[in-house]
Amino acid sequence: MKAALSAGTRCLQRYCEAINSLNVFPVPDGDTGTNMLLTMRSVDERLQALDTSSVSTVAQEAARGALLGARGNSGVIFSQFLTGFAKALDGTESCDAAALAGALASGSDASYMAVSQPVEGTMLTVMREFSASAKGRASQDKPDVIGLWTDALKGARIALEKTPSLLPVLRDAGVVDSGGQGVVVIMEGFLCSFLGQDVDLLEVELSGPTGGGTVSLPTVSAEFLETTQSERYGFCTEFLIEGADIDLAALRSNLSQMGTSTIVVGDSSLAKVHIHTFDPDGVLGYGATLGQTSGVKVDDIDQGHQGFVALHSQPQQSLRLAVVSVAWGDGFANLFHDLGCHAVVPCGRTMNPSAQELLEAAQSTGAEEVVILPNNPNVILTAQQARSLSSKRLHFIPTSTIPQGVAALLAYSPDLPPEQVLRTMEASVKDIKTLEITTAVRDTVMAGVPVTHGQVIGLLDGGLVAKGTSISRVLQEGLLKAEPPEDGVITLYWGGDTQEPEALEAVDPLKAALPGREVEVVYGGQPFYHYVASIE
Questions:
Q1: CA dist list (Å): 464 to 62, 315, 482, 503
Q2: 295 touches 19 (CB < 8 A)
Q3: N or C of the chain: less Cβ packing under 10 Å?
Q4: What is the pLDDT of residues 166-177, one digit of tens each?
Q5: What is the pTM of this model?
Q6: Which of 454, 439, 437, 452 is closest to 490 using CA atoms?
Q7: What CATH class has 235-302?
Q8: Which fold has domain 433-535?
Q9: Beta bridge pairs of residue 271
């Protein structure tokens, strides 16, 4: 059981981005494969040090790991499948085909109960048919585990192929359900383990039409992408609640009034919540009234949707060199997508993505060669680490600021040889200066100059060049110190607590102080920094 769960995780990792490419329901944001993988990794990590000969213990620990690490609709639903699976095996030292069929049925039932409004044509359907086929095999004389699992997989594949006929959004997009495909991939890994085969050599046949890449990525209807282009979905909000006497049914019912895709799992002392909402603060506030909240994760679904559209809008078959960029702020993330970046790793209030996140982003492009734009000095070492761990030809350009990343991306040309493109991108960064305007959060000394808490400071390529009480004056002084060329371009990316009217008002004084320079204003959305200015 432990080996099978590990094999399922490894198989899922290989096909993660293909599953992401199918993700159009409940929202087309391309993260189903990633969410299922992160959930299964939590299972795998919890089981690594487990030394037991009891199937029951393995199943219970797997369920606990899945609950604590569950991500997204698909991850939370699958965690509940493992919870029901473990419950049926409670006290079981070893598991024959009949017990296995019963556990699968229990897992399917638990999954349906977790969802406030179960929808057919999703992974729920695939798991139900998987368990039903297993039950059918178990009713025969002398059933065996491998034969049962093989029949169950056939049933799951048939159910997966039928998902477009059950769910109109899948039919319109021309794909099967992504979560259902994820279930099939995991179960293929299980069977491979049962047979004693190497899961890394397993070739899983994906459902639906595919494009190019090492693992061919399924394609989504262009008409579907166009019709959803302007849709808004809000925020995917997830968290844990630890309390006493938590009423899961009441919690699920109340949250259903605050958003969509509501899933609540757990027990009376620990509940995992997943919901899509336009008011994450309100949801989190309500959760806090029931107990202590932790593991809070709020993702911008609309940003994910734009990335999903961009992924399916590019010609994957001819992609020789893909670009992955780290972004700090939703405006910058959208800008990178609009400029043709193949994958964006968004950072919240910190700029420290993991090497694994960079690797997964690189894998998502489907290209054999990928260049990473770290866009922060703290990420450069992480990019180096990712390069050393990657099975792809992974490059990185040591961009230390986001404006440098923008310049590198503007120099990218997909039609030229990768070596030439990399040289051009790296050369484009050298003439870019970056001015950052922020407010000091404590008293300090920078390059021998005292700075007090609350002062506005200007940092030119990381060095202090201006300070004062006025944001606009520090901005102007910093730009003068940057000495932009007479025919230069200054791009002001506004963020922090700055609003667009303030940013627009800053333009005329800057043009007066710096005649001949072009000044543009763009939304960056970066936290902490009032402005990030690109000078070229």
A1: 51, 44, 11, 22
A2: no
A3: C
A4: 988 888 888 899
A5: 0.55
A6: 437
A7: alpha beta
A8: Hypothetical Protein Tm841; Chain: A;domain 3 (3.30.1180)
A9: 241, 266
